[in-house]
Amino acid sequence: xxxxxxxxxxxxxxxxxxxxxxxxxxxxxxxxxxxxxxxxxxxxxxxxxxxxxxxxxxxxxxxxxxxxxxxxxxxxxxxxxxxxxxxxxxxxxxxxxxxxxxxxxxxxxxxxxxxxxxxxxxxxxxxxxxxxxxxxxxxxxxxxxxxxxxxxxxxxxxxxxxxxxxxxxxxxxxxxxxxxxxxxxxxxxxxxxxxxxxxxxxxxxxxxxxxxxxxxxxxxxxxxxxxxxxxxxxxxxxxxxxxxxxxxxxxxxxxxxxxxxxxxxxx
Length: 267
What we know:
Layout: H1 4-15, E1 29-34, H2 41-54, E2 60-63, H3 86-103, E3 107-110, H4 117-125, H5 127-133, E4 137-144, H6 151-160, E5 167-173, H7 183-186, H8 188-191, H9 194-201, E6 205-209, H10 215-219, H11 225-230, H12 242-258
Parallel strand pairs: 1-3, 1-4, 2-3, 4-5, 5-6
């Protein structure tokens, strides 16, 4: 049975409550999407990058996912390593951060599902402190479904202190809740777990990522969410019906509300 404190945690997660620094709003950001595969990292980057572009920002999109590099199908000029080998990826990451510090651009970086290279790269470079020293705001965005195994990557990063910037977000992806279950109860074992509570206790912010029932209609067409909502499809593709367009419109509004309290951590 959930305690009063559990209920408070659930409510905080639903509303995305948290304390945010007032400085650094115009500083370049490096947003790292972290977690196991198929937990929503690429979907978040697509939505957040589209939102930034609509505001007139020009974030760089970097895809270091070595097994499922999908961002290039949705955006032009996605930068990525030429080789999936560990040392090549590490050198590419070093060069990427050097360029970000020099050119002062914001960026989204997808390291792929559970990729272990972050742990060694972040440890060797003391990544969060290094970025802060050079005026780049590091943002860690961890993605979780309702499977307790999803906590393993969060646990490893948090317990090793390899990448624990003050700007840490834990995203509970409601799109991963099995059909017939309620998100609030499905996520309770996650929220009650010690790993989750420790991250929350040090200041991590919870965000609930809403479910889009027709996500597959956007995915298979490789469309930006705004185009899908407007019914703009590519040549030769079948149309998106009014019902699904409405569902996409509602989802985009819900995403904006869900991430509103950490909007200043985005480009």
